[in-house]
């Protein structure tokens, strides 16, 4: 049942970036500071070492260390640790290590680069769920990045695996959410990666969003979630405009997200992946957006 129909606030989970020092190393101290600040902002959970966290550029030890840093500052119930990999062998190894670190909620992107077949996809998630040893696992579906497509009937089959509790879907629009929602069993949590589409996602049968933009600008997304839950159409319209502005200004750009953190006096750092510096006008739009917000509480 969606949050729009039962009065519960839709969830807003922050997909957190990974902060690197100038020499390219992971800055665990600044990452921990950032995790604490984001957790204190009111978001429901931190999504650690995912796409926004530049996970393809992290080695296994760095991914485990980042999850440990998140667990040091937030309850395990509010940390979703990404363990996905191109192979089930690596994903299982990461799952075992991150589970041993105390993580209780995990997410695993589908195998990527080469498209995974139906049986291999089922085997992949069965092995991850087995290694999770009771922790809840979310399937992470991102076909544009992974080349692996998961049809609604496939997700319904995966949802029967013991331990698979939900899916995070990075696909534009609400049509995929509606199709998945019609196929999955009751109680299976469906999250979208489309930040500003929180309201239509919920009305299509989803339960909330995993939002990279909310790492730096959580206010409009939390306000939008609250307005949807309370059926306050006026508040929803206002929050939607602000969420649209934030998503359009920062978008999927990890570089702009980290610039936004710095403009809000939050911990920030460089990136490790091959990302271009945004043009001048994009930086100006970002400054105007941030200047219109109240300073966040810095932990």
Short description:
With 299 residues, the protein is of the alpha/beta class. 46% of the residues lie in helices and 13% in strands.
Provide an overview of this structure.
The chain has 299 residues and is α/β, with parallel strands linked by helices. The chain has one domain: TIM Barrel (Alpha-Beta Barrel). Helix content is 46%, strand content 13%. It contains 13 helices and 8 strands. Strands 1-2-3-4-5-6-7-8 form an 8-stranded parallel β-barrel, surrounded by 6 helices. Helix 8 links the parallel strand 6 (164-169) and strand 7. The two termini are 36 Å apart. The relative contact order is 0.15.
CATH superfamily: Aldolase class I
Radius of gyration equals 18 Å
- Rough outline: globular
Largest sheet: 8 strands, parallel, barrel
CATH topology annotation: TIM Barrel
* Extended strand count: 8
CATH class: Alpha Beta
CATH architecture: Alpha-Beta Barrel
Order of helices and strands: HEHEHEHEHEHHEHEHEHHHH
Return the domain count: 1
Count of alpha and pi helical runs? 13
Placed side by side, the strands forming the largest sheet appear as 1-2-3-4-5-6-7-8
| Structural class assignment | alpha/beta
Q: Kindly, what is the distance between the CA atoms of the first and last residues, rounded to a whole number of angstroms? A: 36 Å
> Which range best describes the helical content: under 10%, 10-25%, 25-40%, 40-55%, 55-70% or over 70%?
40-55%
Runs with pLDDT <50, length 5+? 1-5
> How much beta, percentage-wise?
5-15%
Mean pLDDT: 95
